[in-house]
Amino acid sequence: MFTQINYPSPTDYARLCERPALEQAALGSLIEGVFQKVQTEGDAALRELTKNYENRNIDSILYTPEEIEKYAAKTEPNLQKAIKHAYDNIYAFHNAQKLVSAKIEINPGVVCWQKATGIDKVGIYIPGGTAPLFSTVLMLAIPARIAGCLEVVLCTPAEHPAIFYAAKLCGVTKMAKIGGSQAIAALTLGTESVPKVYKIFGPGNQYVTAAKMYANRLGTAIDMPAGPSEVAVYADSEGVPAFIASDLLSQAEHGVDSQVFLVSTDERIIQETFLAIEDQLKELPRRELAEKALLNSKFILVATEKEAADLLNEYAAEHLILACKNPEAFADQIRNAGSIFLGNYTPESAGDYASGTNHTLPTNGFARSYSGVNLDSFTKKITLQSISKVGLSHLGNTIIDMAEAESLQAHANAVKVRLK
Amino acid sequence: MFTQINYPSPTDYARLCERPALEQAALGSLIEGVFQKVQTEGDAALRELTKNYENRNIDSILYTPEEIEKYAAKTEPNLQKAIKHAYDNIYAFHNAQKLVSAKIEINPGVVCWQKATGIDKVGIYIPGGTAPLFSTVLMLAIPARIAGCLEVVLCTPAEHPAIFYAAKLCGVTKMAKIGGSQAIAALTLGTESVPKVYKIFGPGNQYVTAAKMYANRLGTAIDMPAGPSEVAVYADSEGVPAFIASDLLSQAEHGVDSQVFLVSTDERIIQETFLAIEDQLKELPRRELAEKALLNSKFILVATEKEAADLLNEYAAEHLILACKNPEAFADQIRNAGSIFLGNYTPESAGDYASGTNHTLPTNGFARSYSGVNLDSFTKKITLQSISKVGLSHLGNTIIDMAEAESLQAHANAVKVRLK
């Protein structure tokens, strides 16, 4: 089941870090058809498509506040407590990300600053399927609330009580019973019941992913491009094979396309991790998924910590776990990753649920250019400037010389008319 | 030439704020062909396409450092001085945007923080054409330098000395002689001479725009979706018609599709602005462009400041100029805009060139969901966490309860194996 790769040359790093080609399912005309139908028929299209694709009858598109209340109350008390704990931690971490705006006097009389404002209307998609992702409700609706988004529309075909509980706790403003590409179409275009939003967040299957890409082409922002979830672990002799195995399996159980990557300077760690994985696999309910995912896994032995860091910067993991001596010094060498977990007692699942960091992170190497979801994702930063007449006189010649050199005379005139 | 609209009802705001439909030129197969050719033939394709599309013969694709030095030196001394002044201001404003990272102890023994790292490789496109946009070199290459991007590749068919001067000043690492969709293809795919980058910035014509959208679909990040440039001015009786006219004309001279929007509570201001525009137009070299752009302009009389703010929030202008009493109080009501210019002595051209703020801003209503380019645009924010065994014991039950409710047993095991 396991492939161990020994001492690859740096020229092999790029190849080793390649992810399987994303299947860009040929869904173009199907998605376009769904959008067209939702555009022309609105709520009626949502009812019909939900019946056809999911065999669910929905009459009203939105849940009423009473329904949300009723379903939320069915959440187990223990789970309610856990969700509240996670809520507090996620809130605290994202609230600390608020822009501290300071006015800067760039030149005498020239004052510039930034302010952050929430995106007025956002949509959150939570898939149905085997795992009811109420944790993702927290990860998206909490920063939306902190950002001050006015309308937060949650679409989900899932019906687990904890999704309602989390939505209520986070102040979601509307909750729709719809899923799939038709939910993304509704958020993009708006219908009688579903408000048109400016940005759409959340995971989903290939239909949802394709619909989000299509929405993006129509001008609606999206959180980030999607790809299969992944973890990379770096371990030296300090690593604990049983812990490493549990982290690799947490990733592998997500789905057959999950990516698992272990880089170590210590062959013993790799070998013992193999044994620990086999041992822990036996008792996993989602064992079959995990086993299939492990077929794509890579276990790479490198000579030095420096090589490990180079390889991991090339890989740009969604999750990077550092099971090594002085993990903070190692983390300082990492330029590309979604989220980094330092030390033996920091499992990925802490960040997945409860430590406070966000679990919506860039996969598929997108950590080279994208951040994970954070408070910024729900805000825009607006620049402001206030210039006095004296201030403008300091800038005047610079503006005029540059504008005239760019052949933009009216730009120069806007200064001249004010200073004459 | 001018359309004045009096006291529209709030139900008309959305329609009044509509931009002309973006012409999504049917360039799909052309762009795909260019990308395919660059993919298979590399530098040779760039030479051939540059000959065919632009009738320029280029032998080497990159400028040598000596060539850059030589061309840069031809910049007029006055213009050098202006560019240095602008450089210092833009540097100061963007440098102040650095993330101040603070570790947060979310629960006892649970410490989370963020760090920002530069995107390793970025591409900047600067178009040829009538206006040599050396100012845009500053706006993109300065934050790239502050962010710590390792490779900054500038592609441009333009040959104005100031572009070389600005590139050198900002520490651009490579400069390529290529333009059009082939330049975007080279940055996306890499060739023998041009490095493959992770994110592409900069303005361009419809071919460049379509190529950037295509690059984005292939997984390369882009700065933001493109649209025609635009300004909105809000003026009450405090506004000065000659100043307002000069700002509207600065926008109108950009191109025939530029958008110009004046909202006022004072009909006298609108009428006098009409006269001032006619007066100032006479002497503009780009008069024809500006006149055509003004055909799309809107001059809207509203009853109250509140209505003006509502209308402007709906419009979400790229540039918003506030020529009114207490502009700061008015700015507090604005949730959607790219950049806001406060008071009678703050023309848009100050921000276009020299005050320090960035001029690459969201157009076409994208200010509802996108920020303008800022330091964030060149960085990723990575989250980090370090949890002690005691810390994990505080989170343990929460993680386990949530993971098990989501049917993700291996996620729960990753905690159990560490705490047993």
Automatic annotation (TrEMBL), chains A, B:
A Pfam family recorded for this sequence: Histidinol_dh
Cofactor note: Binds 1 zinc ion per subunit.
Record CDD domains: Histidinol_dh (cd06572)
Binding site for NAD(+): Y125, Q182, N205
Enzyme Commission code(s) on record: 1.1.1.23
Pathways involved: Amino-acid biosynthesis; L-histidine biosynthesis; L-histidine from 5-phospho-alpha-D-ribose 1-diphosphate: step 9/9
Residues the record lists as binding Zn(2+): Q251, H254, D352, H411
Catalysed reactions listed for this entry: L-histidinol + 2 NAD(+) + H2O = L-histidine + 2 NADH + 3 H(+)
GO molecular function annotations of the record: histidinol dehydrogenase activity
SUPFAM superfamilies (UniProt xref): ALDH-like
Role this protein plays: Catalyzes the sequential NAD-dependent oxidations of L-histidinol to L-histidinaldehyde and then to L-histidine.
Stated name of the protein: Histidinol dehydrogenase
Organism encoding this protein: Aquirufa novilacunae
Gene name tied to this protein: hisD
